[in-house]
From TrEMBL:
It comes from the Bacteria. InterPro entries: Aldlse_KDPG_KHG, Aldolase_TIM, KDPG/KHG_AS_1, KDPG/KHG_AS_2. Keywords: Carbohydrate metabolism, Lyase, Schiff base. Homotrimer. This is 2-dehydro-3-deoxy-phosphogluconate aldolase. Belongs to the KHG/KDPG aldolase family. The lineage of its organism: Bacteria, Pseudomonadati, Pseudomonadota, Gammaproteobacteria, Oceanospirillales. CDD domains: KDPG_aldolase. It is an enzyme of class 4 (lyase). The keyword Acetylation does not apply. One of its GO terms (molecular function) is 2-dehydro-3-deoxy-phosphogluconate aldolase activity. It comes from Pistricoccus aurantiacus. Its EC number is 4.1.2.14.
Length: 210
């Protein structure tokens, strides 16, 4: 599990958190990100067409790693598996999700915000987590503090991260990559400004190096 997640999360510095409202935006948006140098994508299951969007991206971009985000229940986890995702991300975690994730062929990156939440996941064998909401939950200072009792744990902080503060997170030894919605602003998607999105991706890909 840890190895599978590492092969995805250490492949990129940034995982864009994507909300697809119009199904026809899925492939041009994902292609723009990949052209810009970002090939690990998280599509949130917050919209009606999210699963269909994942399938289209999966078919159009076989080289990209496609994940489902905002997975709240085992039922959604199963739907994501069936859509062909490479990974699943959850904003928080429940015992039901942890148990489902242990058995699933698709690895889960569970969301935690506190040490106690982390310890619950740890007991189920999880060593890779999303730290969410990162900025609101103590940010870089909290992650530094998590490093002492949990030296083998790695995080993908998400929530309030942007081009300005991402480097501070990426400099931490227990950070694999960061997540964020700043690469896919709604204004650019609505305007179908795929060049603009490609440029944001390129800016991130060129700026950050672990
Ligand atoms: C998520 O689900 O990970 C967040 O919505 C992304 O947070 P951000 O919009 O602050 O980047």
């Amino acid at each position: 599990r840890t190895t599978e997640l590492d092969s995805i999360c250490f492949k990129t510095e940034v995982i864009p958190v994507i909300e697809i409202v119009r199904l026809e935006d899925a492939v041009p948006l994902a292609s723009a990100l990949v052209e810009g140098g970002i090939s690990v994508l998280e599509i949130t299951l917050r919209t009606d067409c999210a699963l269909a969007a994942i399938k289209r991206m999966r078919d159009a971009l076989p080289g990209a790693s496609i994940g489902a985000g905002t997975v709240l229940t085992p039922a959604q986890y199963r739907q994501a598996e069936q859509a062909g995702v490479d990974f699943v991300v959850t904003p928080g975690a429940t015992d039901l999700l942890y148990r489902y994730g242990v058995e699933s062929p698709v690895p889960m990156l569970p969301g935690v915000a506190t040490v106690s939440e982390l310890m619950t996941g740890w007991q189920y064998g999880y060593r890779r987590f999303k730290f969410f909401p990162a900025e609101a939950s103590g940010g870089v200072k909290a992650l530094k503090a998590f490093g002492a009792p949990f030296p083998g744990v790695r995080f993908c902080p998400t929530g309030g991260i942007n081009i300005e503060n991402a480097a501070d997170y990426l400099a931490l030894p227990n950070v694999m990559c960061v997540g964020g919605s700043w690469l896919t602003p709604k204004s650019l998607i609505d305007a179908e400004d795929w060049n603009g999105i490609r440029d944001l991706a390129r800016q991130a890909a060129e700026r950050f190096h672990r």
